[in-house]
Amino acid sequence: MKAAMFRTLNASIPIDVHYGDIDYFRKRLDFTWNTEDFNGLPEYIDWLHEKGMKFIT
Predict the structure, then answer these.
(1) What's the chain's average pLDDT?
(2) Averaged pLDDT, 8-13
(3) Which intervals hold domain Glycoside hydrolase family 31 TIM barrel (predicted)?
(4) Do 33 and 26 form a contact (C-beta atoms < 8 A)?
(5) Which residues contact 35 (CB under 8 A, 6 or more apart)?
(6) What is d(CA 4, CA 36) in angstroms, rounded to the nearest whole number?
(7) Helix (H) or strand (E) holding 45
């Protein structure tokens, strides 16, 4: 997710929303995230919010 966000920002493409997908869920359960593959997700979402962006699942 971070790589996609930074590629977009580096290309000077305006962005204000980042969408998550079911892949980040733990065992595809709602209200969870896979802490192995998406370590640091809460901090990343906080960073997006600090930059005025939204995160949608």
Answers:
(1) 84
(2) 94
(3) 8-56
(4) yes
(5) 26, 41
(6) 19
(7) helix 41-50
